[in-house]
Input
Amino acid sequence: MARKKRRGNYPKRRLPLDERHYRAIDLLTTHPRKNHEEIAQELGITRMTLFRWRNRPDFDREYRRILSEKVRILTRGRSVDVLAYAMKGDAEIVEWAFVNAGLLSYSV
Output
């Protein structure tokens, strides 16, 4: 008796990140106050597509790497710079960047 061919159990192949993905990462890390719908409109994609991209492990890895790099450039090892941003009223942005880069966590 012949074996029945398996269907639908094959791992899905994902294409590597392209220019659109990196543009999305740049917008997400540069404009923290923009919501996903605004960023998706700017990229010419749907909000759901951006959501799916955010759930990709490779996208998340690159997002965190680039955000961490931007935070490092922002602070350049000087806590005075971070304090200056906070005093200008940008504390929300500084906090957001640190939390998303994994440099700040709120543990109870």
In short: The chain has five helices and no strands. Residues 19-100 form one domain.
